[in-house]
Every structure is written in C-alpha cells, then in structure tokens.
Design goal:
This protein is 2% helix and 38% strand. The strands form 14 sheets. It has a 21-stranded mixed sheet. The radius of gyration is 30 Å and the shape is globular. Strand 21 (237-241) and strand 22 (246-253) form a beta hairpin. With 822 residues, it is an all-beta fold. It has three helices and 76 strands.
Length: 822
C-alpha cells in the first residue's frame, strides 16, 4: 500500500515515502515538533522508549531532526535525547540566548516497583544541542507531565514537574526555578502544600496532568492541576498565582467529567488551552484515563468553555458527542494542537506513541468548537512487518501546508510515509462494496469501484472510471505531465486523462504539474496538488483546493469552499454563499454574488466581497479589504495585538490591521488586544471583542459593542444602540436618542448637555450614572430624585435642555448616592 493516497477531505496530496538512516533505540515516539533552528520549517524531537514487557535498559537513544519543509530531515549535531519512557516535552528558551532549548519529562520504566528516571535538559546551539541534564535533580522521577512558565515573573521560564512519586519512595511534584541562565533550583515551597503532600481533601492524590496559563490577566501564570482518578478523585483545580507561589487555600474547582460509570472518574493526563470556539476567550481541553478506583476502563476527553473571567463550564458532550467517553478503547495520551486541514481552526491530534489497541483519535474543529472524531482505525497507516504496531501522526510543514504522515522504524531506518487506505489494493475491473483503492492498467479499462467511498488511481489509456455508489475520487497523482480533466465532458482532456470518461465519480485529485480541472453539476471536491492549476467547480456545492503553486480557482454556482494553498492564488467564489481562504502568498480573493466569507491568511492579499453582505478576514500582511455591495464585515478576532481601525478615514494600524486598506466596510470586529475602532459617518456596527477597547460612533445610527474587557463605548450624533458586554464599561451615547446596555460588570453611563432622550436597559446597584455635565446642575441625590418620575417603563429623569434618560424597570428607590457622579 505504500505510496498510494487516499482522499480524507483535507488529508490529500502527501509526499511519498522518505527514509532516514538514524539509530533510534527502543520504541519510536514522535515527542514534539516545532521550529528549533529558526529556518521556518518544522523540526522533530523523537525519543526512544522502553515498554514492559521489554527489559529495563536505563535509557534509550532518540534523535532531533531538522526539517527542510519538503519532507526531508537531517540529524542535529551534538547530544541526543536519552529516555526510558518520555512524556511531556517542551521547546523553550531557558537561558535567554534566543535559541530554543528542550526539556523532556520522563517517568521511567512503567511497572512495579516504578523506579523512575531522570528528566533531560538540552540547550540549543542553533546547529545542535548540548546535554546539561546535570543541572536537574538526579533522583529517579516518575514524571507523567510538566509545565513551563514564568512562575515568579522575573522574565525567565520556570518548570513545574508533575511527579506522581514512586512506590520506592521517589520524589513528589516540585518546581524548578530558573536563574535566567538555565540553572534550576528545585523547590516545593511555591506549590500548594496539599498537592505536594499528595493528600487533597483527605484522600490520596496522584498528579499526572498540569499546565501553566495566565487566566486572570495579572501577568503571572496560574496553575491548573488535573483530577486524579484514584480514590474518589478530587476534581481538577485552578490554583491562582499569588506573586510567584500557589496556596492550597486559593483555588477554583473545575467541573468534573461525567464518565457514565458510578464511582468512575477521569485521571487527567494532559491539559491544553486555546480559543477553540472563536469567542475570544481561552477554553480548556483535558484528556485522560477513566478509572473506577484503581481499575482502568477506558479514556475520556473533556471540554471546558471559558467566559474570559476565570469561569469554566463543562460542554464536553455538546462538543465531542459520543466520543467524550470511550470505554472500549485503550489508554489516553497527550494531545497536540494543530490546524489539520488548514482552515484556520485549532484541531487536536494524538501526540507521541500509541499501540493499535489504543486506537487514538483525531478531532477536527468546525471553527465554533464542535469536533468531528476520526479514529486511527479509520485511517490506519503502514506498519510493515509489524515494525512498531502503532499509528503515529505528525504535522509536517510543506510550503505552508500541514499534512499527516505515519512514522515507524524499518530495517534500521526511520521511515515517513503518507496516509494510506487500510484496504487491499484491487486491480480493475473493480473493487468490492467497501472503501477501495482501485488502480487501472495501461490499457483502455472499465474501472468499476462499486459501493463504498472509493479511490481510483488513473493510468494510461482512454478509461471509463465508474465509482459506483458512495463518494468516490479519481486521482491523477501519478501523472508525469500536466492533465486537463472535466467531469462534464471528455472534450479537451489532455495528458493521462485523455479520453477518460467519468461515471459516478464526485472528487478529483490532480497531478504535480499545471493542471486544468473542472467539475460537473454535482458537488465536487477538486484538489490541484502541486503546480499552477486552473480549477472550476461548475454547479453544486464544491470544495476546491489549489495545493502548492499559484492557482486559479472558480467556484461557479453553488455554496462553495475554496482553498488557495501555498503561493499567490486567484479565487472567485462565483454565485452562491461561498467560503474562500487564500492561504500563503499574495492572493486575490473575490466572493462574487452571494453572502461570502473571505480570508486572506498569510501575505498581502486583495479581498473583494462582491454584491451582497460578506465577511472578510485579512489576517497577516497588508491587505486590501473591499466589501463591495451590501453590508459587509471585517474581523480581526484572532489577533492579540492592539489595533486602530477608522472606517471613515481608512486609517488601519497595529497587529493584523497594520497596512490594511478597508473599502465599503460597514461592520468591524476587533481582536483580543486593546483596540480602537471608529465608525463611518453614515453609521456602522462595531464590536471590540476581547481586550479593553475604545469603540466610537459618528453621525449615523450605530450599533456599538465593547465585547470582553473594560471598554469605553461612545456614540455620535445618531440614534445608537450600545452594549458594554462583559467587564466594567463606560458608555456615552452622545447626541441622538440612544439605547444603552451595560451587561455584565460595574458600568458607567455618561449623559451630558445635548445627549437627547436616551434609555438605559439594565441599570443596576453596582453601576454609575454620570450627570456632571447635564444642562441641569445636579448637586445631590435629592436633586436627581426631584427631576425623576416613576413610569410603567421605569424611572424617567429630566436632565434639562430637552434631554432625558429612562432607567428601564428602575424606581426612585433604585438610586443611591453611590450610583451618582454629579
């Protein structure tokens, strides 16, 4: 099967088998990935591991591989990893020299008496690594997890080791405090004492999962400790950082996962943070083993939705469905956050090694935090000769595209190859009723795949490719020159496709050359692969991907999804409500007719929404964002930096907005930073999203929202609708008859001379009413009450000069001195 490609949506077009001569002892574990040498390509940390019943050997040699972005790797110079059973690993600059270093936590030989093993510290030189593990504690740790962060706020990275201890009396959890030069001091004094002692709420507590993350925006990382699955299981907790240490008395309990088993609990082994649902707030995803006391009965995954204020709600069942609890599967391992299908959303993949019985899962995010689960058994990779017997995944950057590969040791070589079908290859005239890979011959074949979702690899000759029932794919990946293919007609077909006829084939994969590919009236999936391709979808709701090269994509009619790929591409959605992503390069993206979603991604892109109301994301680069006709919206939701965008003057600076040109944009959403947003004179919709924002309307009737954070929201001369949203906000309607809502937090409502007849929808006891600049010179609470009238709608206050404010559902008794600024 090696070398065959199977279409799994975003998992197509993967490079061929790559083999590297390198000695890796024991079982292979792809432990971590990232750009270690600063060349822009993904590098790999691979450890060798010992698993029972193999004999304990006192360490296995691994490797650090520098990637070239094309699927090739070279061995880094200097010292190499040495591990017995590696767990969480980190790439971080521990000595402040600007070069990434590596910390590997190791729990040692995983059977009684659990002797433990030393963790490892490798300092980067730019071309390789130096082992300085003698700077770490030399006792045998039982480290299932670790976390990195600046615990004491002194500017360098410290480490927390989630040490579960050993039955032979090994150490418990501890912190490693960094002096800034990667010299570490071991201490437990900064950790919660009950966590260190291993007795929490009166029951034994073994720590397997920890992480550090600033959850209250005070600049210091807080400590999240995952639940233990033993002895009635204490819940997961957030211990709040108190100036460089954590106290047993200062914590917030997190919701527990319902395992569906009385007495059962999840033993958390990995904790990941991210804005998985795109609302601007950090969420938490935890994985772990399911235990009933000491008995393992499956694995689980938990989704905790954050509100931005340190509060989390369990939404596991809604987000993952039935795959939240898998009682029939093996143990859970760590997760890696990666954009699997290059759609801009955070997906989850298994990290490290898994055996076949564990059946690890990939979780694909739809962008709103709802995940589709794909088990390894559905996309089993090649493990020739049972070399390792596991399914390994790793994201490889190939000119900007993220792809999945399988990795295993075979005949002394580290082998990478693409995802392959788990079915037997069937030679024409046809496959069975399962999901087949069908390969033609050099003759003129009738290639019949029959039922199932089939993959048909084209060959020489004028062939009839019949996919039968199911969702079928015709592939020209093995062509040696460009092909021209149209599902609708054989006229104009060229190269390997010349004379080919398609029956019941819905998807198409091109070659590595400059192809011309076209769909038919059905909903087609077309991937150009490499080369400068021209792709047209025709009718139907099509999914078009340019792949590598400078491509031209046209969705035609229907609600289409277009991906440009790795270089400068041209995308045209055509008719329908389309979703378009330019990808890398300076792309030209046009929505056409319909209400479209356009994203430029990396590069200086030109986006034009078209004739109706569209949504535009410029992302990185100096982009031109033209909404065209209709009411159009530009989003900077994924940005962390402060931005300034003025829709009237065209000024755009900071973060992802820097250098952008906005044309015919009526609606604007900020990002996670402290943003300044200004409306059109004709009226706009503005939303600050995350951060402490300044949101300002102009002469028109504006819809203004602060979003999360402590925002300043100011209207203009029009009749504005204003909402502070979360946080302690300041709202000033300005001239016009405005409607104001503070929402959560302690809000301040400002009214001045000439502000018109305004309404406050949710004035509460913790809010302020600023009347210091009204026409009437109020000096006391009694003055305000004298000017107020109780009505069925609420408390109406005459501000003088023809101005008034109605406090909806309020009474005279609702006002107190503490509510007034006079």
């Amino acid at each position: 099967m090696s070398g065959q490609i199977i279409n799994l949506g975003g998992f197509t077009e993967v490079f061929g088998t790559v083999a590297i001569d390198v000695v890796i002892e024991g079982s292979l574990n792809i432990e971590a990935q990232g750009d270690l040498n600063g060349d822009g390509f993904v590098d790999l940390l691979i450890t060798g591991n010992t698993f029972p019943p193999d004999d304990q050997v006192g360490g296995r040699q691994g490797a650090i591989l520098f990637g070239d972005g094309q699927g090739g790797f070279t061995l880094a110079e200097g010292d190499r990893p040495n591990s017995e059973h590696s767990r969480e690993s980190f790439f971080a600059d521990f000595n402040g020299d600007g070069i990434l270093d590596i910390f590997i936590s190791d729990h040692g030989y995983d059977t009684d008496p659990f002797p433990g093993f030393t963790n490892q510290l490798l300092l980067g030189t730019g071309t390789g690594f130096i082992d300085v593990s003698d700077r770490l504690p030399q006792d045998g740790d039982f480290s299932h997890n670790s976390a990195v962060g600046d615990i004491d706020g002194d500017g360098d990275l410290d480490i927390i080791v989630a040490n579960a201890g050993t039955s032979a009396g090994g150490p418990g959890p501890y912190a490693l405090i960094n002096d800034g030069e990667a010299n570490f001091t071991q201490t437990t004094s900064v950790l919660p004492s009950d966590y260190v002692d291993g007795i929490v709420d009166g029951v034994n507590f073994q720590t397997f999962g920890v992480d550090l993350q600033d959850l209250n925006d005070d600049g210091l990382p807080d400590l999240v400790i995952g639940a233990s699955g033993f002895e009635n299981s204490v819940e997961s907790r957030i211990y709040w950082n108190e100036g460089g240490s954590f106290s047993s008395d200062n914590f917030t309990s997190l919701p527990t996962l319902d395992t569906g088993v009385v007495g059962g609990a999840m033993e958390v082994t990995d904790i990941q943070f991210g804005d998985f649902d795109g609302d601007g707030n950090l969420d938490i995803i935890m994985t772990g083993a399911l235990r009933d006391g000491g008995t393992l009965f499956g694995r689980g995954i938990q989704y905790l939705s954050g509100d931005g204020n340190g509060n989390f709600t369990d939404e596991s069942l809604e987000r993952f469905g039935a795959s939240v609890v898998a009682t029939s599967e093996g143990q859970a391992g760590d997760l890696t956050l990666v954009d699997i299908n290059d759609d801009g959303f955070i997906d989850l993949t298994p990290a490290g090694i898994f055996f076949e019985q564990d059946n690890p899962a990939i979780y694909v995010n739809d962008g709103a935090g709802f995940f589709t689960t794909i088990f390894a058994s559905e996309i089993r990779g090649n493990t020739e000769g049972g070399a390792e017997g596991f399914f390994g995944t790793v994201g490889i950057i190939d000119n900007g595209s993220i792809r999945f590969i399988n990795a295993f040791m075979l005949d002394g070589q580290l082998v990478f190859n693409e995802l392959v079908s788990n079915e037997v290859i069937t030679i024409s005239p046809g496959g069975g009723n399962d999901n087949d890979t069908v390969v033609g011959t050099s003759e003129g074949d009738l290639t019949l795949a029959r039922d199932g979702d089939d993959f048909i690899l084209a060959s020489e000759g004028a062939d009839t490719l019949n996919g039968g029932d199911g969702l079928d794919t015709a592939s020209y990946a093995n062509a040696e020159q460009a092909v021209a293919v149209s599902f609708a007609s054989i006229e104009g077909s060229q190269g390997l496709a010349e004379g080919d006829v398609f029956v019941s084939v819905e998807n198409l994969l091109g070659s590595d050359f400059d192809d011309t590919l076209a769909g038919d009236d059905n909903s087609n999936g077309i991937d150009g692969a490499a080369g400068n391709d021209t792709i047209r979808g025709a009718l139907g709701n099509d999914t078009l991907s340019g792949g590598r090269g400078s491509d031209s994509l046209d969705g035609g009619e229907g609600d289409d999804v277009l991906f440009g790929g790795t270089q400068a591409d041209r995308l045209d959605g055509g008719a329908g409500n389309d979703s378009l992503l330019g990808g890398n390069g300076n792309d030209t993206v046009g929505g056409g007719s319909g209400s479209d979603t356009l994203s430029g991604s990396i590069g200086d892109d030109s986006l034009n929404g078209g004739s109706q109301g569209d949504r535009l994301f410029g992302d990185s680069g100096a982009d031109t964002l033209n909404g065209g006709g209709g009411s159009d919206r530009v989003d900077y939701l994924i940005g962390d930096d402060a931005i300034l965008v003025d829709l009237e003057t065209g000024e755009a600076t900071g973060g992802f907005a820097d250098g952008d040109v906005l044309i015919s944009i009526e609606s604007l959403f900020g990002g996670k930073g402290d943003d300044t947003l200004r409306a059109l004179e004709a009226g706009s919709r503005l939303n600050g999203a995350g951060g402490d924002d300044i949101v300002t309307g102009r002469s028109g009737d504006d819809l203004l929202a602060g979003g999360n954070g402590n925002d300043v929201v100011t209207g203009g001369a029009g009749d504005d609708l204003m909402n502070g949203n979360r946080g302690d906000d300041t709202l000033d309607g300005g001239a016009g008859d405005d409607t104001l809502r503070g929402s959560a937090g302690s809000d301040t409502f400002i009214f001045s001379e000439g502000t018109g007849d305004d309404i406050v929808l949710d004035f509460r006891a913790n809010d302020l009413l600023d009347l210091s600049n009204t026409t009437t010179d109020f000096t006391t609470l009694a003055d305000v009450q004298a000017a107020a009238t109780e009505t069925e709608a609420g408390l109406l206050i005459d501000l003088g000069g023809g101005d008034s404010v109605l406090l909806a559902n309020a009474t005279l008794a609702s006002l107190a001195d503490d509510n007034l600024v006079l």
